[in-house]
């Protein structure tokens, strides 16, 4: 990843994300709208219309299959879902004359280095944020920076999405027992980096294709811009799984007949349940084949799976009450993640395929004794690179035409965008917390 605009220090997504069409359309910097010239989309279902007679440029009105990457399509993400991604909240440096104010949180008063600013609704431009509301501690328009500041006396603020900070707070309390904003500040001070938040921080494939110099709204990646706290569609997913009968002692799947001897048959139900919880999913599948007793699996095993595999689902304690069909809930939640991230793998494969061909060409030339420093390299490379590229494109097209990927993706295509984004941010937060924990103690 090269130079990009400022991103949320927690989730890696920037603050200027376009959306269309018409009503509540905006360009990446929240003004105007996406014009015909802005977009690379040629889909027949879209149209280009003048907003008013005499307007300079026609507005691009996205249809359901729009392929524009200038803004996310309103057919695939609602205004409510995307709003938080264009808002910015910062941690700002405590100067020598900083004094507590009436609306400070305890964690701000107790912190050594920083405090929270107000929220800007107009994104981030170059290195600055405008109109922080309220102007907490008098700060209205600070500079912001993802890069390490190395404890200078005049440090830029650290930009974050408000919802990402909510998630940071939640995880910080769980892991450290308090809201450790000093830890996050120190991490940025020492490891912050313009490319993907922190030095050598693992990058996700979907971030690699979207976080460019300007955010690239690749269709299918709308979840990156979806509110991870107020998740659209989550209650609707949970509600139908709540059953009329008590679920705790019920089972999933048919019980297999025959084979009277089964060593597990004498185990009490609780022990059977505990045994399953110690096994990974593949071993449970094998056990089901080997043992008649386990041909049926208790509902509570799936409750255990939801808790163990989806620790970011805090609604579990607030919204999900027994009786619940845990098996159905687990299946639905797994598919809500873009069908187990199948679509993400698809996008990654599309991106990787030409690179694999280029790598094969490089290896072929090396085998012929021509390496990159050889004067013959350029000529040999140029002679064959077009063919390598054409081959990759033909292969991608052949797979697309066969419908193999598309069918698989569509089959499992339910997606709860906000939940998927929450999972992504939760996983990144675990890495951030690990780094905070490993920071050396700073002596004054
Ligand atoms: Zn964020
Ligand atoms: Zn379009």
From TrEMBL:
PROSITE patterns: FBOX (PS50181). InterPro entries: F-box-like_dom_sf (IPR036047), F-box_dom (IPR001810). SUPFAM superfamilies: F-box domain. Residues 261-305 form the F-box domain. This is F-box domain-containing protein.
């Amino acid at each position: 990843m090269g130079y990009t605009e400022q991103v949320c220090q927690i989730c890696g997504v920037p603050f200027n994300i376009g959306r269309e069409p018409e009503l509540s359309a905006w360009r990446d910097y929240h003004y105007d709208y996406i014009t015909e010239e802005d977009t690379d989309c040629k889909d027949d279902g879209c149209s280009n219309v003048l907003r008013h007679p005499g307007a300079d440029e026609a507005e691009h009105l996205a249809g359901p299959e729009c392929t524009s990457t200038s803004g996310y399509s309103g057919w695939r993400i609602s205004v409510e879902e995307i709003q938080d991604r264009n808002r910015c909240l910062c941690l700002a440096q405590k100067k020598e004359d900083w004094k507590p104010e009436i609306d400070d949180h305890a964690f701000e008063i107790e912190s050594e280095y920083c405090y929270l600013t107000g929220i800007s609704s107009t994104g981030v431009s170059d290195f600055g944020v405008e109109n922080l509301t309220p102007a907490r501690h008098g700060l209205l328009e600070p500079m912001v920076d993802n890069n390490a500041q190395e404890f200078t006396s005049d440090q830029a603020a650290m930009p974050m999405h408000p919802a990402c900070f909510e998630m940071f707070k939640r995880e910080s309390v769980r892991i450290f027992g308090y809201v450790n904003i000093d830890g996050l500040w120190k991490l940025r001070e020492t490891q912050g980096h313009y490319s993907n938040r922190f030095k050598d921080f693992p990058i996700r494939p979907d971030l690699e294709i979207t976080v460019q110099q300007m955010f690239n709204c690749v269709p299918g990646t709308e979840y990156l811009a979806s509110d991870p706290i107020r998740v659209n569609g989550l209650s609707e997913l949970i509600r139908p799984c709540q059953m009329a009968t008590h679920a705790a002692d019920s089972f999933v799947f048919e019980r297999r007949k025959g084979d009277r001897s089964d060593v597990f048959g004498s185990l009490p139900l609780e022990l059977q349940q505990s045994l399953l919880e110690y096994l990974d999913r593949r071993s449970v599948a094998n056990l089901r084949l080997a043992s008649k007793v386990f041909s049926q699996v208790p509902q509570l095993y799936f409750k255990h799976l939801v808790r163990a595999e989806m620790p970011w689902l805090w609604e579990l304690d607030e919204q999900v009450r027994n009786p619940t069909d845990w098996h159905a809930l687990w299946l639905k939640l797994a598919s809500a993640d873009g069908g187990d991230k199948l679509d993400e793998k698809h996008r990654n494969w599309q991106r990787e395929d030409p690179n694999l061909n280029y790598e094969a060409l490089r290896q072929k030339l090396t085998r012929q004794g021509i390496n990159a420093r050889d004067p013959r390299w350029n000529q040999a490379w140029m002679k064959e690179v077009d063919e390598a590229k054409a081959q990759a494109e033909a292969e991608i097209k052949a797979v697309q035409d066969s419908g193999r990927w598309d069918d698989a993706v569509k089959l499992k295509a339910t997606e709860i965008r906000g939940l998927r984004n929450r999972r992504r941010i939760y996983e990144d937060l675990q890495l951030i917390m690990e780094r905070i924990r490993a920071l050396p103690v700073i002596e004054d």
